[in-house]
Amino acid sequence: MEKDRKALEEKLKEWFEWFHRNPELSYEEYETTEKIRSILEQEGIEVLPCELETGLVAIVRGEERGPVQALRCDIDALPIEEESGLPYSSGIAGKMHACGHDFHIIAGIGCAILAQEQRERLKGDVKIIFQPGEETSLGALKILETDVMDDVEKIWGIHADPTNQVGVLGISGGYVTAAVDRFVIELRGVGCHGAHPDDGADPVPAAAAMVQALQTIVTRNVNPFHPALISVTRIQAGNTWNVIPETAELEGTVRTMDKEDRALFERRIREIARHTAAAFGINASVRWIAGSPATYNDGEMADYAVKTAEEYGFCVVPEESSLGGDDFSFFEEKIPGCYLKIGTGRGQTIHQPGFRVDRSVILPAAEYLCVLLLGGDSWRKL
Known about the structure:
Radius of gyration: 24 Å
């Protein structure tokens, strides 16, 4: 048994290194998808036919009756030049698995292999979803456009956590990540010579005033006990030094946990943009681009995940709530779900060029996920 476990661990590490060396960006995960398919078929795991350009869904059919569960594993990389120093660093310039999705892939593959070996004790079926495009905040919708989720009753999600050591899991019920929305404000005035501002209507001071005014949504409109923020991340206006431009543009993001706060932000951004522009004698239009909702962990699932983790030998800490987002939340709008943080060794945080995953976490993570899906005291028999 120990020999088999060691052999599986070595295979998983080898495959993990391949995925890390070959990152692909959102909706470009063609080689990634084919590598996942090749490994699964090699291990005798069924891949479902579904209309996905990238990404795929595997299934392990239990030999006992029970619910259909799913495990979501995202597969895309980021446009970051790697500086981790790993011997198996990215071989593709300007692209890197800087968010741990290569770890998510391999944990999902390992879980599928173990569940397939234990399917005589598996109650119901398990679908392992290798999802494209999570970094766009909308990739989950590609899965939901198919019939894959029609019979699924609950779903699990994972994320690499470089703030905790290997052997530590972050698990909590309730909200754990924020809704992610984007806004673009276009200001239109009247351009003129820089020496004669009275001949025009300058959108630049209006844009500056708007940046300040938008911050008051957090400080004056949102309940101070509610996590929320607004960040203006881009300001663009003009193209030379002596011409007052006709237009200016602001872009940014809003992060909220509460559904009412989310609606409040959209309404107040539109009001502030319109009235501030009017005060400066110009016009403003707002585009609100809704992203993924907040991630909410089902309480019963979280309690079960904690109990299972502690029995299996993991240390469990409260999952840190984050105003980062994850499109896993789209699945949770349909069915109960639970999103878990898996300690991958402390180091640079996600989305940084030095981010790395300690490979010793791979097999324990796969085993834990398999135990979650099998239920009961299955960990004693793996």
